[in-house]
Amino acid sequence: MSNVRPESMERITTEALAQAFIAEQVAAVKAQVGDKKVLLALSGGVDSSVVAALLIKAIGKNLVCVHVNHGLLRKGEPEQVIEVFRNQMDANLVYVDAVDRFLDKLAGVVEPEKKRKIIGAEFIRVFEEEARKQDGIEFLAQGTIYPDILESGPVKAHHNVGGLPEDLKFELVEPLKFLFKDEVRVVGKALGLPDNMVFRQPFPGPGLGVRCLGAITRDRLEAVRESDAILREEFAKNGLEGKVWQYFTVIPDFKSVGVKDGKRSFEWPVILRAVNTKDAMTATVEDVPFALLQHITARITAEVKGVNRVLFDLTPKPTGTIEWE
Ligand code: XMP
Fold first, then answer.
1. What's the CA-to-centroid distance between 128 and ligand 1, angstroms?
2. Where are the alpha helices (DSSP H) in 210-289?
3. What are phi and psi for residue 258, nearest 5 degrees?
4. Domain count, the chain
5. Which of 198, 220, 238 is the last residue in one of the domains?
6. What confidence tier does 162 reach under pLDDT thresholds 50, 70, 90?
7. Which of 75, 182, 253, 308 could form a disulfide with 229 if both were Cys (CB 3.0 to 4.6 A apart)?
8. Mutate to test the pocket of ligand 1, among 156, 228, 273 (most ligand atoms within 8 A of CB)
9. pLDDT for 163-193, tens place per residue?
10. How far is Cα 169 from Cα 140, in angstroms, rounded to an integer?
């Protein structure tokens, strides 16, 4: 099949165009897979969520969604995947709690690229194990979108479950492969997915693993997850969600001296990052109101265990990258 978007294909900008696309793809998926089962790695990101919702419409429980919780997801994400797909859409969802497996493998590993490799390889292993438990799977659905094919985006492709062993090479089902991200969002909305899933900011495949700098420890991972949740909550409350391209917290692997409850404390700092970009090749720093920064600082230092300082990263890309690792 061609990997070039047909010239005749209209940009999907409205609900009506999205519904037409959905009807067309539902028919195409049914024709491709018949009554066979399809496997999907459902991360809860925009692309895999939209593929899941589309395929549930087409083939119902013959879609087997596997959600791997590697312990590096943001606060509330695994719960939302279960709520939306299992409870609301009645999906055939396999939830795999692989938190200990990932964190044990990552223990003591400092080098960012090594951390990425371990997370990627372990993900394939867990997914492979789940695939082998399922009978009669002949197809693998993927949230490939057009920029992945064009390879123009610097955002590294994260939804391709490449690397599965030879005997698990399934035929691919890629209903979004000619869509750009904004079109995927319009389709996701038309499929009834919640706004906070459809308009979610980019989140790297290795997740919080590259925001908990150096060797990942459970206590610092929890601190980065909790501080990230506070940042997201405050940005949403103050109209910055959907306006700022990407924002998150980072926790370094050093401590500093502070004072808490009248006593000397020796705890970690949390770094806030909020950037805008078109293509992630260069980025500028969002001019976050100072009063909001102070409020977020007060909340993080009061609510997040083990944190006594908050810093704001003023560095554009270049010279910084968006992530710290
Ligand atoms: P950098 O840090 O390179 O980030 O300026 C550019 C964009 O890419 C995302 N990013 C990743 N995405 N796997 C991913 O799926 C990764 O390993 C990875 N590293 C960075 C980053 O969040 C930003 O949007």
1. 25
2. 218-237
3. -150, -170
4. 2
5. 198
6. confident
7. 75
8. 156
9. 888 888 899 999 999 999 999 999 999 999 9
10. 8
